[in-house]
Amino acid sequence: xxxxxxxxxxxxxxxxxxxxxxxxxxxxxxxxxxxxxxxxxxxxxxxxxxxxxxxxxxxxxxxxxxxxxxxxxxxxxxxxxxxxxxxxxxxxxxxxxxxxxxxxxxxxxxxxxxxxxxxxxxxxxxxxxxxxxxxxxxxxxxxxxxxxxxxxxxxxxxxxxxxxxxxxxxxxxxxxxxxxxxxxxxxxxxxxxxxxxxxxxxxxxxxxxxxxxxxxxxxxxxxxxxxxxxxxxxxxxxxxxxxxxxx
Length: 247
Ligand code: HPA
Fold this sequence. Notes:
single chain, 247 residues, alpha/beta, Rossmann fold, 11-stranded mixed beta sheet, 5 helices, binds hypoxanthine
């Protein structure tokens, strides 16, 4: 079973065959939506819409613990997280796919561990390589196989949102070494690591990050939606290719 978390622009998977929906309660509360179980390319898949079925839950209010916990109940071989990002690095264009290999966490106030509270002992996990190498390679190979423009080496900056960044904030993220910026990468990746579930992200560059398309040019939300509508179809094709294999 492969678990997929869909982000902005992907509240469902049109490629998911024979799907059945099941609510999965957790000790951490309700996940963002019922889980959809089905098949893609003949392989079992469970899908969850990160922001809810109606895209109503903003990034800082997503119950990441419930989401990751619920998916982990199916003992998946891995979690593929799909997300929209802003492109900081100069070569990234809207519509490009990016499979990050590193992450920097700028979020705050989010419940970010399963190990807290009076009945829990402190636990630290290694996070040197936040994304699973093998799962990233499978995503990259599938993306290349369908002819997508893809970058598989990038640092993802996780910001709090829901607002977009200022141009100065983007300059700071770049100085820190970030290539793309999004609002949902953390604590999702760390929670998957705590549960020992391999986790990788495939992100879509929805827009040039603030200030990167010209210093005074505002980011058009309409343009973002247009890019995501097309590119999320491509992400679905990548996932299908990955699950179908090379046939
Ligand atoms: N910043 C943060 N998150 C995003 C962006 C952005 O520019 N675009 C899509 N998600």
